[in-house]
Specification:
Structural class: alpha/beta
Number of strands: 7
Strand order of the largest sheet: 2-1-7-3-6-4-5
Pfam families: Acyltransferase (PF01553)
Keywords: Membrane, Transmembrane, Transmembrane helix
Transmembrane segments: 32-53
Largest sheet: 7 strands, mixed
Strand content: 15-25%
Organism: Rhipicephalus sanguineus (Brown dog tick)
Helix content: 40-55%
Protein name: Phospholipid/glycerol acyltransferase domain-containing protein
Length: 274
């Protein structure tokens, strides 16, 4: 990843910190159901609180960063509640390897590059961000299909997340979203899953496309992930280089996915197996 940064961007260097996050998930359906019930129950009142704040800051014509402070507090509360339930009730265990000590101390505005296997991945990133105290400041770059999810799709956009079309990247729209995050009064860390699609061992059509692309470019064929798409990554670094402190190259590993014969099971998803 460091070579890609230096090859495509000729501004100041960002520090690249590689590390791994390994997750073990409890299989207690009762605890998981309780976790989901609590989150769903609180979703409506929290959305009303956020809506009131959004309306108030709009009516008073307050600066964007003032709205963002309140919005980030709501997002931080939701993330902290979710993490507390996952670790304290459901029994999810997160083990960190690599430069975790450095990032906890530095509390940087970072660009997270993360491998993609599961719908749980964005929560895994939150588990990492929670250690640095910046869960409320995470801005995700996600595929535009998420925009159609009720409440969540609308709120993510208002929070500063950016929707992109993986097949045909709209540079202008993406730059607009990144321009908003360039406001130095708005604390932001940006998260990107450059593979686009999730790596699922059974989805051979997706893996085949990734393999064919790697071979066509004379690159090594990845075995544990898909070939990353470079355009969104490069554009983000170009636009945000002077507003972020480091690139975090994150590898998420899910416990229990390695099979005895050396193959892999699909990573667990939020609502069960893939």
């Amino acid at each position: 990843m460091a070579n890609l940064v230096m090859e495509h961007v000729e501004t100041r260097a960002l520090e690249v910190l590689p590390f791994q996050l390994k997750l073990y998930r409890s299989c207690d359906i009762g605890k998981l159901s309780f976790h989901l019930i609590v989150l769903v129950t609180l979703a409506a009142p929290l959305f009303l609180v956020w809506s009131a704040w959004r309306l108030l800051t709009g009516l008073l014509a307050l600066p964007h960063h003032v709205y963002q402070v309140g919005d980030d507090m709501v997002f931080h509360f939701c993330q902290r509640l979710m993490i507390a339930l996952l670790e304290g009730v459901v029994g999810v265990k997160a083990l960190f390897y690599g430069d975790i000590g450095d990032i906890v101390q530095k509390k940087e505005r970072a660009f997270y590059i993360v491998n993609h296997q599961s719908s749980f991945d964005w929560i895994a990133v939150s588990l990492l961000a929670e250690r640095t105290g910046c869960t409320g400041n995470l801005r995700f770059i996600v595929k535009k299909t998420i925009q159609s999810v009720p409440l969540l799709g609308f709120y993510f956009h208002q929070h500063g997340c950016i929707y992109i079309n993986r097949q045909q990247l709209n540079h202008f729209k993406m730059k607009q979203g990144l321009y908003y995050l360039q406001n130095k009064s708005i604390q932001s860390s940006v998260v990107l899953f450059p593979e686009g699609n999730r790596f699922i061992p059974g989805k051979m059509d997706v893996i085949k496309k990734s393999t064919e692309f790697a071979l066509s470019q004379g690159l090594p064929v990845p075995r544990q992930h898909l070939m990353p798409r470079a355009r969104g990554f490069v554009l983000t670094v170009e636009e945000m280089r002077n507003y972020l402190d480091a690139v975090y190259c994150v590898t998420i590993i899910y416990g229990g996915t390695k099979m005895p014969h050396g193959g892999r099971r699909a990573a667990p998803n939020i609502c069960g197996e893939a």
